[in-house]
Design a protein that fits this description.
The complex is a heterodimer of chains A (145) and B (254). Chain A is mainly α. Chain A has a single domain (8-137), classed as ACP-like (Non-ribosomal Peptide Synthetase Peptidyl Carrier Protein, Chain A, Orthogonal Bundle). Chain A is 47% helix and 3% strand. Chain A is built from 6 helices and 2 strands, in the order ααααββαα. Chain A has helices spanning 8-26, 47-61, 70-75, 80-83, 91-100, 124-137; strands at residues 84-85, 88-89. A two-stranded antiparallel ribbon of chain A has the order 1-2. In chain A, helix 1 (8-26) crosses helix 2 (47-61) and helix 1 (8-26) packs across helix 6. Chain A is globular. Chain B is built from 8 helices and 7 strands. In chain B, strands 3-2-1-4-5-6-7 form a 7-stranded parallel β-sheet, with helices on both faces. The longest helix of chain B has 29 residues, at 110-138. The relative contact order of chain B is 0.15. The chains are: A mainly alpha (145), B alpha/beta (254). Chains A and B meet through helix 2 of A and helix 4 of B.
Chain lengths: 145, 254
């Protein structure tokens, strides 16, 4: 799944509801859930919280989000060995990840970068894009339910 | 500070799912949790007559049944979604569905191995995966897996069954680690020899020797297991997680 045609307006339309959903899951104030906040680094999320967030987003937006597929999606057309080597991203993998997570400020990408650290990059906007992709895959309009 | 009444188990008004609830230990669990005031939805695989008997006998208690093959993960997900969609909550999951296909390993068919592992182990995984998001979003839940004395002690003719119950014990301890921070407790009950249809062949084969090996000198009743499940579901066990509780009358070691 690509980022094709997901623009700032699409993301902005979903932001309030996505931020509220994330705040509910993490038990924090929605005002702190900034569009570019890293859920793990800035909001104290643990990996298990992603499961809860995804589940809540599914209900809030009436979409199905495949579990554990985020990193697979990030890989795009690259094979596993083209994307990473021994758990560390290849240069092609790094380039692909920056393209996929275009909403994440460039200075947050490390090099070398471990594949296991990819979730640290996820921001509120990353989850907006996830919802939009699933809405479009399901033939939806990209508007909040 | 006012202590809550000792008679209040905290279960009334909650919703419990019990797999394999039409007979034996499962039925006793269903009826015990319902008696504590829970709404109980149980699954059965193919014995609709037995399932409908449990529902009919409910006599005012909130008990209903759904045909679900726990080996089918999509069916488990759909079942949980259906109940959660209607009730808005799932407080307790009891993974009780299990089968037994005893034989010496050299005589076991591939099917005997697969059926036992898929029902007893994959079935529990499927149900846990389906209910965890529901419990996580409520920041509360209790999962109780029915294991067996065979999960820890060796027994001739039980390699497949023992492997499945050992797996359940491992699942219980590890899942407890994963979910503790979300206030979801995961425990197991390991029954000894209980008077059910499923254990009939084993009991007949062993004869009187079997009670000689039980300190309390009797075969257990399904209710003995159900009471332990009730304890692990109730607020009385709020500080208990990751445990495998043996309920076996003091089964002696060989």
């Amino acid at each position: 799944m690509s980022n094709a045609n997901i623009n700032k307006e699409d993301i902005a339309a979903l932001l309030p509801k996505v931020a509220e959903t994330i705040a509910d899951a993490l038990g924090c104030d929605a005002a702190n859930v900034k569009p570019d906040a890293s859920l793990i680094n800035d909001l104290g999320a643990e990996s298990i919280d992603f499961l809860d967030i995804v589940f809540r987003l599914e209900r809030a937006f009436k979409v199905k989000i495949p579990r554990g597929k985020i990193v697979e999606e990030a890989r795009g057309s690259l094979s596993e060995s083209e994307f990473e080597n021994g758990g560390v991203l290849t240069p092609a993998g790094e380039a692909r990840l920056k393209e996929f997570l275009s909403e994440v400020p460039p200075d947050r990408f490390k090099s070398p970068m471990k594949a296991a650290e990819i979730p640290r990059l996820f921001t509120t906007e990353t989850f907006c894009k996830m919802v939009i992709r699933q809405q479009r895959a399901a033939g939806g309009s990209g508007q909040p339910a | 500070m006012n202590a809550p009444s000792i008679a209040d188990s905290g279960l009334a008004g909650g919703v419990a799912l019990v797999t394999g609830g039409s007979r034996g230990i499962g039925r006793a669990i269903v009826e015990t949790l319902a008696a504590a005031g829970m709404e109980v939805v149980f699954t059965y695989r193919d014995n609709a007559a037995a399932a409908s008997e449990v529902v009919t006998a409910a006599n005012g208690a909130k008990i209903s049944a759904e045909a679900v093959d726990v080996r089918d993960s999509a069916a488990c997900a759909a079942f949980v979604e259906k109940v959660a969609g209607r009730t808005g909550r799932i407080d307790v999951l009891v993974n009780n569905a299990g089968v037994i296909r005893d034989n010496l390993l050299a005589m076991l068919s591939e099917e005997d191995v697969r059926t036992v592992l898929e029902t007893n182990v994959a079935g529990a995984f499927n149900m846990c995966r389906a209910v965890i998001p529901q419990m996580m979003s409520k920041r509360r839940g209790r999962i109780i897996n029915i294991s067996s004395v065979s999960g820890e002690k060796g027994g001739r003719g039980q390699t497949n069954y023992a492997a499945s119950k050992g797996a359940i014990n491992g699942l219980t301890r590890s899942l407890a680690c994963e979910l503790a921070s979300r206030n979801i407790r995961v425990n197991a009950v390991a029954p000894g020899v209980i008077d059910t249809e499923m254990s009939k062949a084993v009991r007949e084969l062993a004869g009187d020797q079997i009670t000689a090996r039980i300190l309390l000198k009797r075969i257990g009743k399904p209710g003995d297991i159900a009471h332990a499940v009730w304890f692990l579901a109730s607020r009385y066990s709020d500080y208990v997680t990751g445990q495998v509780l043996s309920v076996d009358g003091g089964f002696k070691m060989e």
